[in-house]
Write a sequence for this structure.
C-alpha cells in the first residue's frame, strides 16, 4: 500500500501539478532524488444560496495553497501559502506557489538529502542554520 501511495504521489511531479520540480533535486552521483507530493488550492468562501441553488452572496474567508511532499526516503514536509479574511479576494495564487518555493529551497536542503548522510541534530532547523549563516 505504501508503495502505491508513493507511486501516486510521484506522478504529481512526473506529469501533474508539481511537474516544475522534475529534475530539481539530484544526488551527488547525478541521479534524481525520488520525490512526490500532493497539491491543493482553496478559495474558501461563505456563500448564501437560494432554494434553487443560486448564489446571492459570496464572501471570501481565506485563500490557501499547499504542497505536501516527500524527498527521498527520509524527508517530508508541507508548504502552505495563506491569506486570511476578505483581503484574500485580491489574491489569485495556486498550489504552484508552494511548489516553486520548494524548488527554490533546493540549495538549502541539498546538504541534508544525500542518502546515508546525517541530517540535522534534534532541535536544529536547516533553514535557520542557512539564514543565520547568510
Amino acid at each position: 500500500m505504501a508503495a502505491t501511495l508513493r507511486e501516486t504521489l510521484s506522478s504529481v511531479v512526473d506529469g501533474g501539478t508539481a511537474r516544475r520540480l522534475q529534475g530539481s533535486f539530484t544526488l551527488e552521483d547525478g541521479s534524481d532524488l525520488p520525490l512526490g507530493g500532493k497539491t491543493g488550492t482553496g478559495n474558501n468562501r461563505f456563500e448564501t444560496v437560494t432554494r434553487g441553488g443560486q448564489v446571492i452572496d459570496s464572501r471570501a474567508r481565506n485563500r490557501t495553497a499547499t504542497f505536501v511532499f516527500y524527498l527521498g526516503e527520509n524527508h517530508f514536509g508541507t508548504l502552505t501559502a495563506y491569506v486570511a479574511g476578505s483581503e484574500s479576494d485580491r489574491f489569485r495564487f495556486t498550489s504552484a506557489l508552494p511548489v516553486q518555493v520548494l524548488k527554490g529551497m533546493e540549495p538549502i536542503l541539498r546538504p541534508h538529502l544525500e542518502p546515508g548522510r546525517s541530517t540535522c541534530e534534534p532541535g536544529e532547523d536547516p533553514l535557520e542554520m542557512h539564514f543565520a549563516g547568510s
